[in-house]
Design goal:
Elements (H helix, E strand, L loop, with lengths): L1 H19 L2 H21 L8 H26 L2 H6 L5 H31 L6 H24 L4 H18 L11 H7 L3 H14 L7 H30 L1
Helix pairs in contact: 1-5, 2-3, 3-5, 3-6, 3-7, 3-9, 5-6, 5-10, 6-9, 6-10, 9-10
């Protein structure tokens, strides 16, 4: 068990050094949420704080899924993933390490945007532990989504296109810009099957001191369930892909 944790750590550290901690990727991850913040601030400065939880969740989603999908797709193309699979480590260890690396950069960008929002708009965090747990669980769920997308594609541009196919609908049905309770019932039902819904709910509870449509601890339990489901799903998908390829 300790060896598997060390192997996952070194995989994550390798990905961070080789791919994630590069100026273009960092600037791209910061550009989208900053542009959204400015757009909402210029439109309605008095109510911009209401959309901050959704924008933080949006930052976590885009930063994490994009990088996870791109790195795996790139490594498959240059056969780096094949060399890594020849190492004496388990599939779950490999997937966990890849997920940790992507989660770490996504959480870092999300926390940066959160800090800027707190300072700029005078927000206060009422439950720091819940907030941090939400960020950790959310980013790992989103990382697994990115890894799952990378299984189905061969080129980087295909990964980005397929990622947007899943991400853009989530922006509109998970309560990012509008309260989840105000959405039509059909969209609410669809939203319950997406992890981002529960992320936004916890963020609104912690940042705006508003009651959540679910108990925040049920939100955390739902995110943990999504983590387990997506992790075992991506592990099975990778094994199936490898059997078909080799």
């Amino acid at each position: 068990m300790i060896l598997a944790w060390k192997q996952s750590y070194y995989i994550a550290r390798k990905d961070l050094k080789a791919y994630y901690l590069k100026p273009p990727l960092i600037s791209w991850g910061l550009m989208l949420p900053v542009v959204f913040l400015l757009a909402f601030y210029l439109r309605n400065p008095e109510k911009v704080a209401e959309v901050v939880p959704g924008l933080v969740a949006l930052t976590l989603l885009f930063s994490t899924t994009s990088m996870a999908a791109i790195v795996i797709t790139f490594e498959k193309r240059i056969d780096a993933l094949e060399r890594l699979l020849l190492a004496p480590l388990g599939m779950k260890t490999l997937i966990f390490g890849k997920g940790i690396g992507s989660s770490a950069i996504g959480a870092s960008v999300g926390l940066f945007i959160l800090f800027i929002s707190i300072v700029a708009f005078g927000l206060s965090v009422s439950h720091w532990i819940l907030l941090l747990l939400c960020i950790v669980l959310s980013t790992f769920s989103f990382a697994c989504m990115g890894l799952l997308i990378s299984v189905a594609v061969k080129e980087v541009f295909e990964a980005m296109t397929l990622s947007n196919f899943f991400r853009l609908p989530m922006v509109f049905i998970c309560g990012v810009f509008f309260p989840f309770e105000s959405l039509p019932k059909a969209l609410q039902i669809a939203g319950f099957f997406l992890p981002m819904t529960y992320s936004v709910d916890i963020l609104r509870y912690c940042l705006l001191n508003q009651g959540s449509f679910l108990n925040p601890y049920l939100d955390l339990a739902a995110l943990m369930g999504f983590n387990l489901l997506l992790f075992f799903w991506i592990t099975a998908a990778f094994r199936k892909s490898l059997r078909e390829q080799y």
